[in-house]
Write a structure and sequence with these properties.
By secondary structure, the protein is an all-alpha fold. It is about 45% helix and about 0% strand.
Length: about 60
């Protein structure tokens, strides 16, 4: 299997971040939220707005009677 240096770097960064917060998921999330609040980037919510509807998916060939 070929070595993927980008994947290796992402995994290393993830491991370092987890170790920094003693592998505590709540602490990792709190730190991420803190960075997000300090950032000047707009944060969006992916929660659907009230009143908007999404059409149901069309059945696939396997779903037909």
């Amino acid at each position: 299997m070929a070595v993927d240096y980008i994947v290796d770097e992402v995994r290393r960064a993830r491991q370092e971040l987890a170790a920094k917060h003693r592998f505590d998921v709540k602490a990792i999330l709190a730190a991420a939220k803190k960075r997000q609040r300090r950032s000047r980037h707009k944060v969006v919510s992916l929660v659907p707005k009230e009143g908007l509807t999404v059409a149901p998916p069309e059945p696939s060939l396997g779903d037909r009677p």
